[in-house]
Protein backbone atom coordinates (compact mmCIF):
# COMPACT_ATOMS: atom_id res chain seq x y z
CA UNK A 1 0.00 0.00 0.00
CA UNK A 2 1.21 3.47 -0.92
CA UNK A 3 -0.30 6.88 -1.58
CA UNK A 4 -3.72 7.80 -0.22
CA UNK A 5 -4.52 4.17 0.60
CA UNK A 6 -1.52 3.92 2.92
CA UNK A 7 -2.28 7.21 4.63
CA UNK A 8 -5.90 6.28 5.34
CA UNK A 9 -4.93 2.72 6.16
CA UNK A 10 -2.62 4.03 8.86
CA UNK A 11 -5.48 6.09 10.28
CA UNK A 12 -7.84 3.09 10.27
CA UNK A 13 -5.25 0.84 11.92
CA UNK A 14 -5.59 2.65 15.24
CA UNK A 15 -9.35 1.96 15.54
CA UNK A 16 -10.70 -0.71 17.85
CA UNK A 17 -12.50 -3.96 17.01
CA UNK A 18 -15.93 -2.39 17.50
CA UNK A 19 -15.36 -0.34 14.38
CA UNK A 20 -13.02 -2.45 12.23
CA UNK A 21 -13.10 -6.29 12.08
CA UNK A 22 -10.01 -7.96 13.65
CA UNK A 23 -8.68 -9.51 10.38
CA UNK A 24 -8.63 -6.10 8.71
CA UNK A 25 -7.06 -4.51 11.80
CA UNK A 26 -4.29 -7.11 11.68
CA UNK A 27 -3.59 -6.34 8.03
CA UNK A 28 -3.68 -2.59 8.59
CA UNK A 29 -1.39 -2.85 11.61
CA UNK A 30 1.44 -3.67 9.20
CA UNK A 31 1.04 -0.42 7.29
CA UNK A 32 1.25 1.65 10.47
CA UNK A 33 4.96 0.94 10.56
CA UNK A 34 5.44 2.56 7.11
CA UNK A 35 5.56 1.65 3.45
CA UNK A 36 7.66 -0.88 1.58
CA UNK A 37 10.86 0.76 0.39
CA UNK A 38 11.74 0.95 -3.29
CA UNK A 39 14.27 -1.59 -4.55
CA UNK A 40 17.60 -0.05 -5.55
CA UNK A 41 16.94 -0.52 -9.28
CA UNK A 42 13.67 1.40 -9.09
CA UNK A 43 15.22 4.06 -6.88
CA UNK A 44 18.05 4.62 -9.38
CA UNK A 45 15.54 4.84 -12.22
CA UNK A 46 13.60 7.60 -10.46
CA UNK A 47 16.77 9.52 -9.62
CA UNK A 48 18.09 9.20 -13.18
CA UNK A 49 14.80 10.49 -14.57
CA UNK A 50 14.42 13.42 -12.18
CA UNK A 51 18.04 14.51 -11.65
CA UNK A 52 19.83 13.14 -14.69
CA UNK A 53 22.03 10.06 -15.05
CA UNK A 54 24.99 11.89 -13.50
CA UNK A 55 23.15 12.77 -10.27
CA UNK A 56 25.62 10.86 -8.07
CA UNK A 57 28.54 13.02 -9.26
CA UNK A 58 26.90 16.02 -7.61
CA UNK A 59 27.12 14.39 -4.16
CA UNK A 60 29.89 13.27 -1.84
CA UNK A 61 27.71 10.44 -0.56
CA UNK A 62 24.21 9.01 -0.82
CA UNK A 63 22.75 6.52 1.67
CA UNK A 64 20.63 3.94 -0.16
CA UNK A 65 19.06 2.85 3.12
CA UNK A 66 16.11 5.25 3.61
CA UNK A 67 15.66 7.14 6.83
CA UNK A 68 11.91 6.63 6.45
CA UNK A 69 9.33 5.42 3.94
CA UNK A 70 5.96 7.14 4.03
CA UNK A 71 2.77 7.29 1.98
CA UNK A 72 4.03 9.03 -1.16
CA UNK A 73 7.79 8.70 -0.96
CA UNK A 74 10.88 7.88 1.05
CA UNK A 75 13.69 10.00 2.52
CA UNK A 76 17.44 9.39 2.09
CA UNK A 77 20.44 10.98 3.75
CA UNK A 78 23.04 12.54 1.42
CA UNK A 79 26.03 14.89 1.58
CA UNK A 80 26.59 17.66 -0.95
CA UNK A 81 29.97 18.45 -2.51
CA UNK A 82 30.36 21.40 -0.09
CA UNK A 83 29.87 19.11 2.89
CA UNK A 84 26.27 20.11 3.62
CA UNK A 85 24.13 17.23 4.90
CA UNK A 86 20.75 17.07 3.16
CA UNK A 87 17.65 14.93 3.11
CA UNK A 88 16.40 13.85 -0.32
CA UNK A 89 12.72 12.95 -0.51
CA UNK A 90 11.96 10.70 -3.47
CA UNK A 91 8.38 10.20 -4.64
CA UNK A 92 7.26 6.70 -5.56
CA UNK A 93 6.79 6.35 -9.33
CA UNK A 94 3.13 6.48 -10.36
CA UNK A 95 1.89 7.43 -6.90
CA UNK A 96 0.28 10.67 -8.11
CA UNK A 97 -1.78 8.80 -10.70
CA UNK A 98 -2.95 6.28 -8.12
CA UNK A 99 -4.62 8.74 -5.75
CA UNK A 100 -8.11 8.50 -7.29
CA UNK A 101 -8.13 4.70 -7.40
CA UNK A 102 -6.74 4.56 -3.85
CA UNK A 103 -9.56 6.75 -2.57
CA UNK A 104 -12.15 4.56 -4.29
CA UNK A 105 -10.61 1.41 -2.79
CA UNK A 106 -10.60 2.93 0.69
CA UNK A 107 -14.21 4.05 0.22
CA UNK A 108 -15.15 0.44 -0.47
CA UNK A 109 -13.22 -0.65 2.60
CA UNK A 110 -15.08 1.89 4.73
CA UNK A 111 -18.41 0.65 3.36
CA UNK A 112 -17.44 -2.96 4.08
CA UNK A 113 -16.35 -2.29 7.65
CA UNK A 114 -19.38 -0.10 8.44
CA UNK A 115 -16.93 2.42 9.88
CA UNK A 116 -18.91 5.17 8.18
CA UNK A 117 -22.60 5.15 9.22
CA UNK A 118 -25.00 4.43 6.36
CA UNK A 119 -26.79 7.73 6.80
CA UNK A 120 -23.61 9.76 6.29
CA UNK A 121 -23.39 9.00 2.54
CA UNK A 122 -19.62 9.34 2.15
CA UNK A 123 -19.79 9.79 -1.63
CA UNK A 124 -22.21 12.66 -1.29
CA UNK A 125 -20.23 14.31 1.49
CA UNK A 126 -17.04 14.25 -0.60
CA UNK A 127 -19.01 15.51 -3.64
CA UNK A 128 -20.50 18.46 -1.58
CA UNK A 129 -16.94 19.46 -0.60
CA UNK A 130 -15.67 19.24 -4.24
CA UNK A 131 -18.61 21.25 -5.53
CA UNK A 132 -18.29 23.88 -2.82
CA UNK A 133 -14.57 24.41 -3.39
CA UNK A 134 -14.98 24.49 -7.17
CA UNK A 135 -17.84 26.98 -6.90
CA UNK A 136 -15.97 29.28 -4.55
CA UNK A 137 -12.86 29.14 -6.71
CA UNK A 138 -14.78 30.13 -9.83
CA UNK A 139 -16.75 32.79 -7.95
CA UNK A 140 -13.49 34.30 -6.70
CA UNK A 141 -12.10 34.40 -10.25
CA UNK A 142 -15.20 36.20 -11.55
CA UNK A 143 -15.11 38.68 -8.69
CA UNK A 144 -11.43 39.41 -9.19
CA UNK A 145 -12.11 40.56 -12.75
CA UNK A 146 -15.61 42.01 -12.68
CA UNK A 147 -15.84 43.38 -9.11
CA UNK A 148 -12.29 44.18 -8.02
CA UNK A 149 -10.89 44.86 -11.53
CA UNK A 150 -7.73 43.40 -10.01
CA UNK A 151 -6.66 39.81 -10.56
CA UNK A 152 -4.00 37.44 -9.29
CA UNK A 153 -3.14 35.91 -12.67
CA UNK A 154 -1.06 32.88 -11.62
CA UNK A 155 -3.49 29.92 -11.57
CA UNK A 156 -0.99 27.52 -9.98
CA UNK A 157 -3.23 25.29 -7.86
CA UNK A 158 -0.90 25.60 -4.88
CA UNK A 159 -1.87 29.29 -4.75
CA UNK A 160 -5.43 28.36 -3.73
CA UNK A 161 -5.58 27.27 -0.10
CA UNK A 162 -8.82 25.82 1.29
CA UNK A 163 -9.45 26.53 4.96
CA UNK A 164 -11.78 23.71 5.98
CA UNK A 165 -12.88 25.13 9.34
CA UNK A 166 -14.05 28.43 7.81
CA UNK A 167 -14.94 26.87 4.42
CA UNK A 168 -12.92 29.65 2.82
CA UNK A 169 -10.66 29.89 -0.24
CA UNK A 170 -7.43 31.77 0.47
CA UNK A 171 -5.58 33.20 -2.53
CA UNK A 172 -1.82 33.72 -2.17
CA UNK A 173 1.19 34.88 -4.25
CA UNK A 174 0.39 38.21 -5.89
CA UNK A 175 3.64 38.48 -7.82
CA UNK A 176 1.72 38.23 -11.11
CA UNK A 177 -1.26 40.39 -10.11
CA UNK A 178 -2.54 43.21 -12.33
CA UNK A 179 -5.33 45.78 -12.67
CA UNK A 180 -7.77 45.97 -15.58
CA UNK A 181 -9.27 49.21 -16.96
CA UNK A 182 -12.96 49.71 -16.19
CA UNK A 183 -13.81 50.05 -19.89
CA UNK A 184 -12.13 46.70 -20.63
CA UNK A 185 -13.94 44.98 -17.74
CA UNK A 186 -17.34 46.37 -18.83
CA UNK A 187 -17.00 45.18 -22.41
CA UNK A 188 -15.45 41.86 -21.44
CA UNK A 189 -18.42 41.12 -19.18
CA UNK A 190 -20.75 41.91 -22.09
CA UNK A 191 -18.75 39.54 -24.28
CA UNK A 192 -18.89 36.74 -21.71
CA UNK A 193 -22.66 37.14 -21.50
CA UNK A 194 -22.87 37.01 -25.31
CA UNK A 195 -20.82 33.80 -25.28
CA UNK A 196 -23.05 32.30 -22.58
CA UNK A 197 -26.21 33.23 -24.54
CA UNK A 198 -24.76 31.99 -27.86
CA UNK A 199 -25.22 35.48 -29.30
CA UNK A 200 -22.81 35.44 -32.26
CA UNK A 201 -23.42 39.05 -33.23
CA UNK A 202 -22.80 40.15 -29.65
CA UNK A 203 -19.56 38.17 -29.48
CA UNK A 204 -18.29 39.79 -32.69
CA UNK A 205 -19.40 43.29 -31.63
CA UNK A 206 -17.69 43.12 -28.23
CA UNK A 207 -14.63 41.40 -29.69
CA UNK A 208 -14.15 44.34 -32.07
CA UNK A 209 -14.57 46.86 -29.25
CA UNK A 210 -12.05 44.96 -27.12
CA UNK A 211 -9.52 44.59 -29.94
CA UNK A 212 -9.74 40.85 -30.56
CA UNK A 213 -10.99 41.58 -34.10
CA UNK A 214 -10.35 44.40 -36.59
CA UNK A 215 -13.59 44.18 -38.56
CA UNK A 216 -11.85 42.92 -41.71
CA UNK A 217 -11.59 39.21 -40.79
CA UNK A 218 -12.66 36.44 -43.14
CA UNK A 219 -15.79 34.41 -42.49
CA UNK A 220 -13.57 31.44 -41.55
CA UNK A 221 -11.86 33.46 -38.83
CA UNK A 222 -15.13 34.94 -37.55
CA UNK A 223 -16.73 31.51 -37.34
CA UNK A 224 -13.76 30.02 -35.47
CA UNK A 225 -13.66 32.99 -33.10
CA UNK A 226 -17.39 32.79 -32.34
CA UNK A 227 -17.30 29.00 -31.89
CA UNK A 228 -14.40 29.34 -29.43
CA UNK A 229 -16.46 31.90 -27.51
CA UNK A 230 -19.46 29.59 -27.44
CA UNK A 231 -17.33 26.73 -26.10
CA UNK A 232 -15.99 28.91 -23.27
CA UNK A 233 -19.56 30.02 -22.58
CA UNK A 234 -20.94 26.47 -22.24
CA UNK A 235 -20.59 26.30 -18.42
CA UNK A 236 -22.49 29.60 -18.18
CA UNK A 237 -25.19 28.78 -20.75
CA UNK A 238 -27.81 27.03 -18.60
CA UNK A 239 -29.14 27.39 -15.08
CA UNK A 240 -28.32 24.63 -12.64
CA UNK A 241 -25.05 22.88 -11.88
CA UNK A 242 -22.57 22.46 -14.71
CA UNK A 243 -20.58 19.23 -14.42
CA UNK A 244 -16.99 20.06 -15.37
CA UNK A 245 -16.31 16.35 -15.89
CA UNK A 246 -18.53 16.25 -18.99
CA UNK A 247 -16.07 18.10 -21.23
CA UNK A 248 -12.70 19.82 -21.11
CA UNK A 249 -13.51 23.39 -22.17
CA UNK A 250 -9.91 24.54 -22.53
CA UNK A 251 -8.98 21.47 -24.59
CA UNK A 252 -11.91 22.02 -26.96
CA UNK A 253 -10.92 25.66 -27.55
CA UNK A 254 -7.38 24.55 -28.39
CA UNK A 255 -8.80 22.61 -31.33
CA UNK A 256 -9.81 25.90 -32.98
CA UNK A 257 -6.47 27.53 -32.26
CA UNK A 258 -4.79 26.56 -35.54
CA UNK A 259 -7.54 28.18 -37.60
CA UNK A 260 -7.48 31.39 -35.58
CA UNK A 261 -3.68 31.62 -35.71
CA UNK A 262 -3.74 31.22 -39.48
CA UNK A 263 -6.44 33.82 -40.14
CA UNK A 264 -5.88 36.31 -37.30
CA UNK A 265 -5.28 39.90 -38.49
CA UNK A 266 -4.33 41.43 -35.14
CA UNK A 267 -2.87 40.14 -31.87
CA UNK A 268 -5.31 39.86 -28.93
CA UNK A 269 -5.42 42.81 -26.52
CA UNK A 270 -2.57 42.87 -24.05
CA UNK A 271 -4.91 42.42 -21.09
CA UNK A 272 -6.18 39.08 -22.41
CA UNK A 273 -2.96 37.07 -22.03
CA UNK A 274 -2.83 37.01 -18.24
CA UNK A 275 -6.62 37.01 -17.97
CA UNK A 276 -7.10 33.93 -20.14
CA UNK A 277 -4.31 32.12 -18.32
CA UNK A 278 -6.19 32.64 -15.04
CA UNK A 279 -9.58 31.67 -16.50
CA UNK A 280 -8.10 28.50 -18.02
CA UNK A 281 -6.49 27.63 -14.71
CA UNK A 282 -9.77 28.07 -12.85
CA UNK A 283 -11.61 25.87 -15.36
CA UNK A 284 -8.90 23.21 -15.16
CA UNK A 285 -9.06 23.24 -11.35
CA UNK A 286 -12.83 22.62 -11.50
CA UNK A 287 -12.24 19.83 -14.04
CA UNK A 288 -9.60 18.27 -11.80
CA UNK A 289 -11.91 18.49 -8.80
CA UNK A 290 -14.74 16.95 -10.78
CA UNK A 291 -16.91 19.78 -9.46
CA UNK A 292 -20.52 20.59 -10.35
CA UNK A 293 -20.92 24.37 -10.18
CA UNK A 294 -23.92 26.67 -10.83
CA UNK A 295 -21.85 28.78 -13.21
CA UNK A 296 -24.70 30.68 -14.86
CA UNK A 297 -26.13 31.73 -11.52
CA UNK A 298 -22.69 33.04 -10.49
CA UNK A 299 -22.32 34.99 -13.74
CA UNK A 300 -25.87 36.42 -13.63
CA UNK A 301 -25.32 37.59 -10.06
CA UNK A 302 -22.17 39.42 -11.16
CA UNK A 303 -23.83 40.85 -14.30
CA UNK A 304 -27.02 42.04 -12.57
CA UNK A 305 -25.06 43.86 -9.87
CA UNK A 306 -22.37 45.29 -12.16
CA UNK A 307 -22.16 49.07 -12.42
CA UNK A 308 -21.36 49.80 -16.07
CA UNK A 309 -19.72 53.15 -16.70
CA UNK A 310 -21.71 55.77 -18.62
CA UNK A 311 -19.17 55.87 -21.45
CA UNK A 312 -19.37 52.13 -22.14
CA UNK A 313 -23.17 52.19 -21.88
CA UNK A 314 -23.38 54.87 -24.55
CA UNK A 315 -20.86 53.13 -26.79
CA UNK A 316 -22.69 49.82 -26.45
CA UNK A 317 -26.01 51.39 -27.40
CA UNK A 318 -24.46 53.08 -30.45
CA UNK A 319 -22.81 49.82 -31.57
UniProtKB/TrEMBL annotation:
<keyword id="KW-0418">Kinase</keyword>
<dbReference type="InterPro" id="IPR011009">
    <property type="entry name" value="Kinase-like_dom_sf"/>
</dbReference>
<dbReference type="GO" id="GO:0006744">
    <property type="term" value="P:ubiquinone biosynthetic process"/>
</dbReference>
<feature type="domain" description="ABC1 atypical kinase-like">
    <location>
        <begin position="31"/>
        <end position="130"/>
    </location>
</feature>
<dbReference type="InterPro" id="IPR034646">
    <property type="entry name" value="ADCK3_dom"/>
</dbReference>
<comment type="similarity">
    <text>Belongs to the protein kinase superfamily. ADCK protein kinase family.</text>
</comment>
<keyword id="KW-0808">Transferase</keyword>
<protein>
    <submittedName>
        <fullName>Putative aarF domain-containing protein kinase</fullName>
    </submittedName>
</protein>
<keyword id="KW-0547">Nucleotide-binding</keyword>
<dbReference type="GO" id="GO:0005524">
    <property type="term" value="F:ATP binding"/>
</dbReference>
<keyword id="KW-0067">ATP-binding</keyword>
<dbReference type="InterPro" id="IPR004147">
    <property type="entry name" value="ABC1_dom"/>
</dbReference>
<dbReference type="Pfam" id="PF03109">
    <property type="entry name" value="ABC1"/>
</dbReference>
<dbReference type="GO" id="GO:0016301">
    <property type="term" value="F:kinase activity"/>
</dbReference>
<dbReference type="InterPro" id="IPR051409">
    <property type="entry name" value="Atypical_kinase_ADCK"/>
</dbReference>
Amino acid sequence: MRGAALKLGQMLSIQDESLVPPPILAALDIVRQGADVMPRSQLNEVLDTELGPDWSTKLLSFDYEPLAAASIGQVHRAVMKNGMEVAIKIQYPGVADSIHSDIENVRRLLDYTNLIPKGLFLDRAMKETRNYVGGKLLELTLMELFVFCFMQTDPNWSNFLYEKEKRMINLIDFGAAREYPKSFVDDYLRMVMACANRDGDGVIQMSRRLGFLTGDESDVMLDAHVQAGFIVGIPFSKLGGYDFRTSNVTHNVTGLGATMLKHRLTPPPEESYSLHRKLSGSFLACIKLGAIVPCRELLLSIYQNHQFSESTLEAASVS
